[in-house]
Amino acid sequence: MELVRKKVKYVSCMAGAFVPRLAGHREYNVINDIPAAQKMIEKWPTEIVFSGFEIGETVMYPSVSVQKDFEYVPAHPIKEAYRFYRGIENEQPTFDMRRLFGEQGYQASAESRQFEDHIGFELLYLALRYSESSNAPSAETLQEIQDFIRKHPLSFINKLNEKANNSCAEHPSSPGYYPALLKLTEGLLLQDAK
């Protein structure tokens, strides 16, 4: 536990519901093992930041993306996970990205309809992280940003670019700038990840 105290500033826990309309909500991340959840909350040695269900449910990941964007392999693990968990016909809450937005104090609303997909959400998050101050980001913030870039957009942008190229080849009348735009985005992300 001493190492945790030294190395972990806080743990972000997606659990609970903290608005009146969700009174009585049975949180999946808690009810599956209530004794373990209680033990973790009681014994964790640093701060715990709870993100309630109401945070993730406000921005939905489109079901059309789950249905179509992972078809480049026969049984993509992400698509199969959605199929077994909730089905691929349902919109999916973007709990992780909403949690990150909340931790940084950023605001996002479903009404703006600006988050059509995860990459849009992730690029907006990066833009906000970079623009929070007029000075260069601290070493810690820069490391967080670089880790985020590697874990999120860089993990799938190559495949997305491949799909855009294939789509342009199959549909010559489609706008051909998407592959170039994705390649530019990938190059900028690679530069920022260094």
Q: Which stretches are poorly predicted, pLDDT < 50 over at least 5 residues? A: 111-116
Mean pLDDT: 76
Biggest sheet architecture? 2 strands, parallel
Q: Which strand order spans the largest sheet, edge to edge or round the barrel? A: 1-2
Derived from helix and strand composition plus strand pairing, the structural class reads mainly alpha
> What is the first-to-last residue Cα distance?
32 Å
The total domain count is 3
Put simply, the count of helices is: 11
Radius of gyration, in Å, reads 19 Å
Helix proportion range: 55-70%
**Strand-residue fraction?**
5-15%
Shape: globular
Number of strands: 4
Could you please describe the fold and organization of this structure?
This protein is mainly alpha-helical and 194 residues long. 57% of the residues lie in helices and 7% in strands. It folds into three domains: 56 residues, no CATH class; 75 residues, no CATH class; 58 residues, no CATH class. It starts with a helix and ends with a helix.
